[in-house]
Amino acid sequence: MKIVKDLKKINLKNNTVVTIGNFDGVHIGHQNIINKTISIAKEKNLKSILFTFSNHPINFFVNDSIKNLMTIQEKYNFIKNMGIDIVLPIPFNESIIKLTPDEYIEEILIKRLKVKELIIGHDFKFGKNRGGNADFLKKVAQIYDFNVRVIEPIKIENIRVSSTYIRKLLEEGNIKRVRKFLGREYNINGVVVHGKKVGRKLGFPTINLKVDEDILIPKIGVYRTKVKIENDFYDGATNIGYTPTIQNKNFSIETYIIDYNGDLYKKEVSLYFIERIRDEIQFKTIEELRNQMKNDVEKIKRKKYIYL
């Protein structure tokens, strides 16, 4: 897969199959659109292009107003594994929002991307003031001789799969439902940093994970997780929050890795969220906290889970 981060640097000789969108989280609805793009490209012997943005469009208008479901590098990796030929992640900025729908089509889709087949979601909007949509594209496509295919949304229990809804579920801590809509476990990646080593004193040494500040962290609480260290998975008990019993004022993501004794300091680790066990609780004594941690770990050990 080729990554081109500047529209001016893309140099195509032949027609292409293009899909456009933010694709945050690459949920099952996104995957359906991407797979359709790849399928049509192979059928017509053309290159497939995923045109996306290196920053979330909403954050361009209101800075830090929305958290991402994955980093841009994680998005690249996921899309690469799906089989897209070219990813074009450009900054969503003033030059993009100033383009009228006609300019957007002519300057980007026709001149730069040489689109022959355009695959979009049902609610796709583009151009200045979001003035362009699927109906507009279909009319203009006849002039420029390309085809527009609109992919209908996927619904689960009559709810449309969307990144917005998945964010809502994560903020509520509804991890099991997230898996249905995302198509896999929600995960966050980070680097292990030093904590206050309170868990070690309690008999449950934990790793403290530092993650990208733009990534959405699930609701405060205690979770059953799978911890990926290099290529191996371990069961984990993860606390997200402020550990109020020890009066910690700093937000942290701490995980006790069951049956693991290695040193992970400064190493990259991935956390896969399986289910939310309980709320974060302020106990009256350290002993009560220790007992609860013991109960949490025993509960996790009793549950069988195979990561696929």
Automatic annotation (TrEMBL):
One of its GO terms (molecular function) is riboflavin kinase activity. SMART domains: Flavokinase. The keyword Flavoprotein applies. It catalyses: riboflavin + ATP = FMN + ADP + H(+); FMN + ATP + H(+) = FAD + diphosphate. It is an enzyme of class 2 (transferase). GO terms for biological process: FAD biosynthetic process; FMN biosynthetic process; riboflavin biosynthetic process. Its EC number is 2.7.1.26, 2.7.7.2. Residues 181-305 form the Riboflavin kinase domain. SUPFAM superfamilies: Nucleotidylyl transferase, Riboflavin kinase-like. CDD domains: FAD_synthetase_N. Keywords: ATP-binding, FAD, Flavoprotein, FMN, Kinase, Multifunctional enzyme, Nucleotide-binding, Nucleotidyltransferase, Transferase. The keyword Cytoplasm does not apply. Catalyzes the phosphorylation of riboflavin to FMN followed by the adenylation of FMN to FAD. Belongs to the ribF family. This is Riboflavin biosynthesis protein.
